[in-house]
Amino acid sequence: MCRVPGPTLADIARAAEVSTATVSHALNGTGRIGDATRRRVRETATRLGYGTPGPPRSRTLGIAVTTFPTAWNYAEIAYFSRALTAATSAAHARGYALTTLPADRAADDSWHSLAVDGMLIMDSPRGDPMVHALRARGIPLVFDGIPGDPRPGDHWVDNDHEATTHEVLDHLAASGARRIALQSGNGDEHYARAVTAAYERWCAERGAPALIVPFDVADDQGHGFDELLRGGQDRADAVYAAYDPGGRQLLAAAARLGLRVPGDLRVVCASEDPGYAATDPPVSTVTLDPERTARAAVGLLADLVEGATERTAGPVVVPAALLVRASSLARPAEG
Amino acid sequence: MCRVPGPTLADIARAAEVSTATVSHALNGTGRIGDATRRRVRETATRLGYGTPGPPRSRTLGIAVTTFPTAWNYAEIAYFSRALTAATSAAHARGYALTTLPADRAADDSWHSLAVDGMLIMDSPRGDPMVHALRARGIPLVFDGIPGDPRPGDHWVDNDHEATTHEVLDHLAASGARRIALQSGNGDEHYARAVTAAYERWCAERGAPALIVPFDVADDQGHGFDELLRGGQDRADAVYAAYDPGGRQLLAAAARLGLRVPGDLRVVCASEDPGYAATDPPVSTVTLDPERTARAAVGLLADLVEGATERTAGPVVVPAALLVRASSLARPAEG
């Protein structure tokens, strides 16, 4: 974890009446020392404000989504709203207030003075100025999604996007798809890069063409798919949409182009929106389990803030799950 | 709204090159002045930090639930989690970060230094120390639920709990209930007092006995209802549970006591939990529309922080709705 301003090991050693080596062992969970001693050292360290930006502690954790530092409202997207709900409950259960920043706050410099003891940063891209500033301030960080600029000792929680992407593609192939396209992000966060790389690797291993459509959140009617879905033999017969609205965009495009789902076009969408169980047809979804991810990340962050570093053996990999619905079932037997 | 430290009307008048009377009209939405002037005065006032705790603005709104300043986790209750999700989205849409405080934070004095431009306080009881401290600091406040210590000019968003309670009781009476009990809170927030008073008034007008069972969040099995639901003629044949878990507590109690729902016992619960549509039997619920309430409250608060007081004609009354399910239908015809 990041080292931060505050008392030194020697300060804690004096106050707890032990050696600095014992303090180091107690705080890092190493060595062979008694529980009572470890506890006393921990309590002393916490009392002295060790591992925090220095008293007065704000007893506040922060959350930011830094991929797109614009005015988009991530709280209206199911993955994030569900993650925020779980994170709030987890933070309060540990006695912390939780501050969520609007997406465009990542574009100004207000986080230079943000009063938080620790920060959970979601989908951090490469060259993330907020991460740079918070690291410089020594604010403990936990990432949801491997950070674009990882450092040794970073703590993050993520899914195994390569395994999940391959599971989806194998499922679509098993259901009869021959030309499987990917709708992926144009962002620089790990998720977009990992899903795209896994897709390209999967296609290369099978000599299949890589058909990638950029995600456009504003394209309600899925016009971005028109070229991909037209043109007889060469059109895609399946799409994995890696972002939440993609499934609805695909249903709209298929309806406009007269394609049956799943008969002519199989659809899988990464989404936490239960509404996909009620679309026509219901859309197969990949859930990344944002509640479990957020709880794990907040727990990690609170441990870091409290200097309980032996409990923070990251990274944490949260299982994702493919929920198969009608939109990606095998084409009905013909003839 | 509360007056706060910062520039005076005269300061704004000088900077905007208008009279102090014009400033007052522009900020309060009174008088007959042109839109351009009103806008210029507003912008000047905002630029000077008028109506805020003074620069630097934190561009952060806070939320606290102050009824029970203990370690209960309100974020795990459907009403609050849904309100928080909507409040986060509304705050971010206005460019504000949102800080939610754990329930027990209302018991310490950290809010004396809490870095917020405005605060949304939910279920504020009488003698609320947080409200007292924030009023003293001149922090703009909006209440979800009429505050226990209201002041002229307070801004709040609430439902009409008397009308809703009477609607529920009339529905239960129409479905054949003769001895209708209320499970209500022992808190001092307006909601508990308003629902209880409305129930007692309704009973008094009909010469019906007032049967009130205190809510106990820990009573999963509804043992608190045993006395009420035993004893032949005198037992209650319907209960309105004014708190979320009450419906499940009642189903557990009825099963233990061998009572059929709704045949022997009609149940209505105030809850935002969609899970009540899937219980056996499905439970009739009252929804208070926490999303609409939270959006309205955050909008009011942002207007107050920005000095746009002509938009803040409170109070706002949000309609509640009774959703009738099997648990409160008329007893099947007998004989």
TrEMBL record, chains A, B:
GO MF annotation, one: DNA-binding transcription factor activity
Database matches in CDD domains: HTH_LacI
Cross-referenced SMART domains: HTH_LACI (SM00354)
Top-level division of the source organism's lineage: Bacteria
Keyword Thylakoid: no
InterPro entries: HTH_LacI (IPR000843), LacI/GalR-like_sensor (IPR046335), Lambda_DNA-bd_dom_sf (IPR010982), Peripla_BP_I (IPR028082)
Keywords of the record: DNA-binding, Transcription, Transcription regulation
UniProt keyword Iron, yes or no: no
Stretches assigned to the HTH lacI-type domain: 7-50
PANTHER family reported for this sequence: LACI-RELATED TRANSCRIPTIONAL REPRESSOR, LACTOSE OPERON REPRESSOR
Name the record gives this protein: LacI family transcriptional regulator
Species in which this protein is naturally found: Streptomyces kanamyceticus
